[in-house]
Design brief:
alpha+beta; two-stranded antiparallel ribbon; 3 helices; globular
């Protein structure tokens, strides 16, 4: 993730406390970039339980990213109705 985008994404993720942010410099770790099929920068990936749910590359529209994250976050974090 480029240095200009990182603070914006960090701020966005404050709304989603259960999401952990990690960054990798694809030029420094090309094997990791290859394993995630990252061939451009920046790329934002959201994984839930090992499955990719979001992939945003190059031009990232934070308002649209926020909407996508919110939908997934609400589904994954909504309280279970078990035990009622």
């Amino acid at each position: 993730m480029c240095h200009g985008l990182r603070p914006q994404v960090q701020k966005l993720l404050t709304k989603y406390p259960d999401i952990q942010l990690a960054t990798i410099n694809a030029q420094e770790v090309p094997a990791v970039a290859g394993s995630f099929s990252v061939f451009t920068a920046p790329v934002l990936l959201l994984y839930v339980e090992g499955k990719e749910y979001i992939r945003e590359a190059r031009i990232v529209h934070l308002d649209l990213l926020d909407e996508k994250i919110r939908k997934i976050y609400d589904l994954v974090t909504e309280p279970s109705s078990e035990g009622e």
